[in-house]
Structure formats: structure tokens, C-alpha cells
Amino acid sequence: MKKRILIIANAYSFLYKFERENVALLQRMGYEVHYAANLKEQCYEEQKRIVERLGICLHHLPLARSPYLYRQNKEAFDVLLSLIRCHSIEVLHCHTPVAAVLARLASRFVKRPLYIIYTAHGFHFYRGAPLLNNTLYYLVERQLAKETDVLITINEEDHAQAKKLRLKPGGRVYLIPGVGLDIARFHPLSPITILRQRQSMGFLSEDFVAVSVGELNGNKNQEALLDVFVKLRAMGACMAHMHCLILGDGVYEARLRRQIRERALQDSVHLLGHVHDVRMILGSSDAFLFPSKREGLGMAALEALSMGIPVIAADNRGTREYMQDGENGFVCEPEVLPVQMAQGILRLQRMRLLEKERLRQRCMLSVRMYEKRYPRRIMQEIYTRMDAQVYGS
């Protein structure tokens, strides 16, 4: 019997960013891997080329990211049912909230058992979330958990919540350290490489260069970084030597550009757009700024720490997993984030060289538990158990 698995997420780029390790593992186990997502969402050509070389079957699923776009998601649901039936899919591994809802609803309409794995990259109900999230989203998850064979979480808070849910009989909850940190790629740059990279970007040795990486949207909260630099100016910092490089694109780009002009921050805050390989810019910076309102874990911050770059982060359930205030950077309370982040930048700027080197070493040590081998080992266990239950392998 041909073994097939369908991986479902909201966007083409999700597989490139998060699922290549799982695809390779499944293919080694003899699975034909199908991937369904909204292929019309933005995905860069270099990412598409890598995905196409994986040897998987791609399917367009007209998913909307918002659960409230009923008509579009109903169409996606019908397409999903058709895919499951036409390709004799018996295993679904779903990611992202809307995809996870549709995948588990599908199990109620297909007239044969479906084995369903859901990786929650951050529940939409969490400590400090709006009341709507902590009621509606929780109730939906509680109902759909009954259709779930395996529920995978990536942080302790979500893991504790998941263990309270009633899964299918024999269902299991797992905690994995994210998708895995590639320390072979994200390692500290040599001093001469850092010097050359900074010179190539036009920065002086006395310049403080902070970097932020992420999609430009409300949750990633890049608007707060503009507040940070306004605070630095009010604190008397020499703005000619203060720089923030924001890497990424998204729906907030025009809004951020307008606010940068209105606040006269053109010489300090720079939107660099999409950068395929962030390592040279990230590894030659003085700090990584991570103001997200919500994170499941936060791979961008883990990658910065792995390169020896201290992180100044908003306190949320994701950053609580690895951030230790004063040890590998600084943690800011969301209510006073601009002030505390500005203070953190000034503290880093004033550090002596020896203190900076000690901090750099602590940053690298703080993320060793997130190396790729650890989630890979757990996913091997999950897929082996799945294989035995579905195909008797």
C-alpha cells in the first residue's frame, strides 16, 4: 500500500521555513508527501525553487488567514475534502490555526479514519490574550481536540494547556523545542567579517546597529521600534550613531515608512525589505530587537542568540522559554516596552569589551537546547508511532 501524508498550512512559504526537516524524515520512511496551502500567497522565487526540489506534490488550497472569511474558507474546505478522497490520504499533519480547523473538521466528513497531527505554533488563547481569544478560540480548540491524534506544542505554556484537552482515545501531547536551530549556519562571525560587513553598509565603528527580522504586521509590532528610537532621542542619545535595520516585508510597510517620515527617523530607522539570507547583517549587529506582542517561540531571536547577538525582547510566552533578563539580553514589559527597550540599548552601548564578550558567550550557550537534533528526535518518535498505528509498519 502506498503511504501518503498531507501537510497543510496557510502559505507556500511555510513549508520552506518550517517543514523541510519533516519532509525529509517522512520521505526516508517511504511516504509520498503532499503539501496543501494557499499557493497564491507571496513566496520568493529562491524559496519556490528549494521547495520544488523536495519532490513533493503541491496543491493549491484557497485558505484565508482569517477564520472570519467564511466563503473563502468554505471553498478551501471543499478542496481539502476532494484532495483527501482523490489521493487516498490517511494521515494529515496540519499547521496554522485555520488550516488546523479545516483539517480536523474534514475528519468528520470523510467516511474512513484519518490520523491527524496538529503542530500548534502558538495557541491564540494564552495568558494575557484578549477575552475573545481566551473564550472563542479555546472552545473551538477544545472541540477539535477530539479529532486529534497528536498535538504538538512548542512552549511550556501551550503544553500545559494542551494536556488539559481531551484528544482522541490514545492521543498524545508532545513538547518540542521549535523546528530546530541550525547552529552550523547561525554561528558568530569573525571580527574581520563583522568589520567588513559593517563598512559595506556604511557604518562607523562607534555606531550602534540594532536589527529586527520579521513580517511587517501588527503582531510583530515594528511600530514599537519607532517609539523606542523616539525615546532614545528624548534620552539624549547621539542619534547620528544609532541605527535600527528592519528586515522583512508585509502589509505594514507603507504605514511604517509614513511614520518614519513623520517622526523624522529617516537617518536612524531603515526598512531593508526581504533579505533571503540575514546572517551577515544579523551577525554584525550589536543587538536584536524583538518587540512581538505574541510568539509561539521565536526562531529569529534564537538565531540571533546563536550568533552571539544579545536580544532585547518583549515579555511573552515564547520569549519566556529562553530569555533571561541580564544574562542573554533584556526582557521588556509590554506596557512600557519603548522605555525599557531604549534603556537596554543604552546599557549595551555602554558595556566594556570584556563584558560584551562574556554576554556573547552566554547568548550562545542559552540556546544549545534548541539545536535541530532535539526536535528531529521527537518528530522521529511521533512519525514512527503514527506509521505503526496507520500502516502497521
- Please give the alpha-carbon distance between the first and last residues: 11 Å
- What order do the helices and strands follow? EHEHEHEHEHEHEHEHEHEHEHEEHHH
**What does the largest sheet look like?**
7 strands, parallel
Instruction: Report the principal-axis shape.
Output: elongated
Give, in spatial order, the strands making up the sheet with the most strands.
Answer: 3-2-1-4-5-6-7
CATH hierarchy, class of the largest domain: Alpha Beta
- The percentage helix is 40-55%
Based on the structure given, which CATH architecture of the largest domain is correct? 3-Layer(aba) Sandwich
Q: How does the helix and strand content classify structurally?
A: alpha/beta
Total domain modules: 2
Uncertain runs: none
Domain Glycosyltransferase subfamily 4-like N-terminal: 26-177
Protein name: Glycosyltransferase family 4 protein
Pfam family, one: Glyco_transf_4
Organism: Amedibacillus dolichus
